[in-house]
Amino acid sequence: MLFLKSHETTTATLKYMKYKVDLHNHSCLSPCASMELSPRVLVKNAAAENIDILALTDHNSTRNLPAFEACCTKKGITPIFGLEVNTLKEIHVVCLFGELDAAESFGNYIESTLPVIRNNKRIFGEQVIVDAYDTILGIVKPVLFSNASISYFELIPRIIELGGLVIPAHIERFINGAISQLGFLPDLPYSAVESLLIPCAYETYDNTIITGSDAHIPASVGCRSFFITDTRDFKPSFSSLADALQEKRITYR
Ligand SMILES: [Zn+2]
Ligand SMILES: [Zn+2]
To answer: Which residues contact 72 (CB under 8 A, 6 or more apart)?
Structure first.
C-alpha cells in the first residue's frame, strides 16, 4: 500500500507535492484593516486554513513584519515579507522579499516618500504596530494609504533588481488596480499577476496568474489562495515559491 507524506497528492499516473499559498493580507497597521486583524490573528486563521506560505502586505509599511515572522515561526508557516505599495496614479502592487531586513529596508524607503498627511482615525481607523502577542508598540501618524512617490514603471524593475517578487494587485478591481488606473495592464516583467477571479478575463500576456485573500478582516483570511506544485520533493520557501511562479507550477485547488 502506498502511504503519502503530508502535502503529497496523486493523480492516476503522477505523484506530486503541493503547498497552499496566500500572498496578499493586511494587518491592523493598514488604515483600512480591522483592529482585530493582528499578525497573530492573521497567522492563526491562516493555519486554520492550512496555508503553508503566507505573506503580510500592509499598505506602504513593513512595521508589523517582525511580529508576523515570530507568529509564523510558532505555527510552522513559511513567512514571506511584503508590503502593498500604492504608486503614483494610485496603483497597488504587492512587493515581496525572502528576508525580513530586505523588506524593512524597502518599506522604510517607501514610508519616507509618503506625504506627511495625518491619519484621520475616524475615517480610516488607527494604524497600529503590535508585537506577536497583540501588545501595542506604537501608532503610525501619517496616513499610510497615500501614494508613495514612485511610479508603477519605476517600481516594477526596482523590486526585481532587489531580488524580490513584484505582483500587480487585484488588476481588475474597480479602483487601485492597473486596469482601472491606466486602462490596461502594461506588459512588464512581473513575477506574477494577481486577479480576484480565476480565470482572469483580461489580457495578462504570458504572466503567471495568482489570486490572494487581500484580507482586511479576520474572516477573510484564506478566502482566496493558490497552490505551488512539483513532481519532485520540495520544501516551502521564498525561493521555491519564486521558482514555481516562474515555471508556472500553479494550481488553484
Ligand atoms: Zn490593494
Ligand atoms: Zn491589499
So the answer is: 43, 54, 78, 79
Work out whether strand 226-230 and strand 15-22 pair parallel, antiparallel, or are unpaired: antiparallel
Strands (E), 65-208: 78-86, 92-97, 128-130, 136-139, 165-168, 193-194
Task: Parse the chain into domains and list their residue ranges.
Answer: 18-251
pLDDT grade for 1, boundaries at 50, 70 and 90: very low
Report the predicted TM-score, pTM, of the whole model to 2 decimal places.
0.94
What CATH class is the domain 18-251? alpha beta
Q: What is the Cα–Cα distance from 95 to 168, expressed in whole angstroms? A: 9
Which tens digit of pLDDT belongs to each residue from 42-55? Answer: 999 999 999 999 99
32 Cα to the center of ligand 2, angstroms? 9
How many A from CA of 193 to the centre of ligand 1?
13
Query: What's the gap in Å between 85 CA and the centre of ligand 2?
Result: 9
Cα of 59 from ligand 2 centre, angstroms: 7
Could you say which ligand is closest to the alpha carbon of residue 93? 1
| Cα separation, 20 vs 38, whole angstroms | 21
